[in-house]
Amino acid sequence: MNWPLYYYLGPMCLIAFALFSLYVHFFESITAPSVRRTATEVILLVATIALGFLVVYFNFLDGTSYFAYRDMGSDTVDQYVPYYLDLMRKISTRSLGTWNMNYGLGASFMSYQSWTLDPFCLVIVPLALLLGQQHLSLALVIAQGVKMLLCGLLFDHVLTFYCSRPLSRIVGAVLYAFCGFLMLWGQHYWIGASIVMATLMMLMLELLMQRWSMPRFWGLAVASAVSIIMSTYSGFAVMLFSLAYALLRIPVATDSTGIRSYLSGFWRLALPVACGVLISCVTLVPYGTAMIQESSRVVSSGQAPLSERMLDYAKAFVPLRWLPYLVSRLLGNGLVSVCAELPQYLVPATEAFRQTNVYEMTQMGFSVAAIILLLQFAWWELTEADRREKILVAIASALCICYCVNYFLPALSNVFSAVRYRASFALAAPICIAMAVAWERCFLERRLNIPVFVAGAALTAATLAWSLLHTLDGRLICLYFSLALLILVVLSVIMARNREGRCKLVVVLFAAAMLSSSIVDGFFITNSRVWCTKSDFPKADASYESDMSAALKFIESQDEEGSGTYRISIAMGDLNAALTQGFMGIDSYNSTINSNLELFYKELWPGAIRKISAYQATRDDMIHPTLQRMLGVRYIASRGDIRIDGYEPLASFGSIRVLKAQGQTSLATVFESTTSESSVQSQTPQEREGLVQSSAIVSDNAPKGFQNLGRASGDAITGTSTPAKAHVDSQTSVSCCTSTDSKAVCMFAIPYAKGWSAKVDGTQAPTFRTNYGFIGVALQPGSHKVSIAYRPLGTDIGFAISTSGLVLGLIASIAMLRRQKAGGLQVR
């Protein structure tokens, strides 16, 4: 780390000392029992989170660092930042639609639903539009701060149902706000929002269990709907967590004494959640349809039957060598690795889970006191809790442990498509609740069990020693945690000797040491990284981008047909340069690529895929003029000289060279000759590429009479291919005018997806897959106007179900309100 960049930590220490003094000053009020949150509690909580946020993110706020990464977290700068820039542009120009022409060769809104409908876009987009796109990083880091603050405030409210003392709630809420999940996945923007939605769901469930009312009913329904509308992917995990939380809390929160009262309490919670799920179908149905029918993540997975996968995951456990690392990660996410790849000898990959890196492993990071407090909580439950509570805590503990050591629950949260630990936020709530309860009962109420404390301290010391011996880049974190542990032990000895009363200075110091370890962990896993700077953050101030902007303006001024008639291929820079700069390109980094498009690359342009299909990089294999022209590439921009047959040099702008296609190119091509996919199955990609110069390869379900056009005899091809004059009318519609003397197929260079519909001269026409990945339309001889338009499949059904959810919620809430007024509904 470049320590001169962190001199601001000196003033932060002074502010921390002032905040520490406030805790000491208000000690009596924040340790006195209070079932409601107090103003002092909220102010101190907000101040603590704000201070921790400044410690972690100060350099990102003042522009020294930019909130995106070029190491293991490169998704941020390669995929999300370009998308946000494109989103801002489309909102400002009112061109946002359900299809994005600038995302590679084109992508459905459903493939990036989570990024667009993230509620925190309501913070990011207005701020970035107000400040300018060059300050997008600032908007992103402010949104991260809002997430942390909301997590802390919401969880503090949840803790009023568990803890009676404000200081206990503050400690638990701060640990929750700085937990490893939000610190690491918050760097991936929308993924971090899932813990906020899970916390909101938890709070609304508690409030409705406490007392039924119309606002609480609809609060839970809206929270459920927003969780899924924001992201079906993370929303499913949030719903699973909410279900488990409700099932375990109903017996305690509603004082259920039998099955009937338990079921009564459950359906009162289930009804508003069900209404929320129905309301979310406005996006859930189109998303599900797109993922099942189009996404390469599902279509081409080739997995075993669901029942077989479920059984396999249930029988599979993590290797024993994972266990020390998991215990280390319980304390701090960065003790062993801040961002370096985890070596196989330390955390070996398995057949079911190969992504053993700091992002994809279980996210925890709950401070140096995690083991000590959890053992105190377990001892208190064993010795003082009633039988029902012991059973419920045992079930919750078993679920948390199973999530960490068995593959079933991580796979379940990913609908059994693969093992993923992106629902690790589910661990934060029970662990932070247990820590807050233990802190209150064992330290504030002076019921500390010394032998259990010694065992916890010894286990923590052993874990830190193991972490220090095996750390890759977390040595400083290990040393700080070791110092913090020593302080906790000394303070505990002082408290144990002073049994007559609480020493407020010692108690506040204990809390400070505990909370500071969590903030320090967050500081290092955020700052000990390869973060972006002004020179390489997209649209901040990159010199090559200014040259590229000049080249794009020149191209637009030179081309009379308009930018909606051609594509530009980029032989340099980031894969999503088209999103960043706002033009129609080819390359992209898209982790939810259309499965038909994936087939196109596999069968015709395999050299354009970097290892996995998410990386579509034609720049790695540029010399394919036939395919470039077929895709409507009229211009090629490169850094330095490049030669491609059929393209001639046009102009230079700094290091950027611009080439233009000789002759006509278009986003639509009319083929008078076709060949079925099955008839060329044995050919090589090079042979198929030669074929598509004059003949389209159509799917075997193309209309009869259009599968082998233009063949006079045998395999001889007599037809031709001609570019048609096509234009992108909007993000969701393309049209062209063409004329043909015989039957033909018009291929639009738009990825084939079920939501596209076609019209020929105003009459509906079927579409079919052409050249493995694109939209084909059958044409009869004559002159035609052909148009295609996109509307996500399932939109009408989703809207109808969503409306029914609103109606059902309205009827149910009115009926329950009348029953409550009549005295037939228990409010508690």
Structural class by sheet pairing and helices = alpha+beta
N→C terminal distance:
55 Å
Radius of gyration: 30 Å
Number of helical elements: 30
Strand content: 5-15%
Overall geometric form: globular
Level of helix content? Answer: 40-55%
User: How much is the average pLDDT?
Assistant: 91
Q: Could you say how many structural domains there are in total?
A: 3
Number of E strands: 21
Taking pLDDT < 50 over at least 5 consecutive residues as the criterion, the unreliable ranges are none
Strand order of the largest sheet: 18-17-21-15-14-11-16-20-19
**Largest sheet: number of strands, sense, barrel closure:** 9 strands, antiparallel
Query: What assembly state would you assign to the polypeptide chains in this entry?
Result: single chain
Protein name: YfhO family protein
Transmembrane segments: 6-27, 39-60, 136-155, 167-184, 220-246, 266-287, 330-349, 361-379, 391-409, 421-439, 448-468, 474-494, 506-525, 797-817
Keywords: Membrane, Transmembrane, Transmembrane helix
Pfam family, one: YfhO
Provide the fold topology.
Elements lengths: L8 H17 L1 H5 L7 H23 L4 E4 L5 H18 L6 E2 L6 E2 L4 H4 L4 H11 L4 H23 L7 H12 L2 H6 L7 H18 L3 H17 L1 H22 L5 H21 L1 H13 L2 H4 L6 H10 L6 H10 L38 H15 L2 H19 L2 H5 L12 H20 L5 H21 L4 H23 L6 H24 L3 E2 L10 H16 L8 E5 L5 H5 L6 E2 L5 H10 L10 E2 L8 H6 L2 E7 L7 E7 L2 E6 L6 E4 L2 E3 L8 H7 L4 E3 L22 E10 L2 E8 L3 E8 L4 E5 L2 E3 L1 E4 L3 E6 L2 E9 L4 H27 L7
Parallel strand pairs: 5-8, 12-13
Antiparallel strand pairs: 1-4, 2-3, 6-7, 8-10, 9-10, 11-14, 11-16, 14-15, 15-21, 16-20, 17-18, 17-21, 19-20
Helix pairs in contact: 1-3, 3-7, 3-8, 3-24, 6-7, 7-8, 7-10, 8-21, 10-11, 10-12, 11-12, 11-13, 11-30, 12-13, 12-19, 13-30, 14-30, 17-22, 18-21, 18-22, 22-23, 23-24
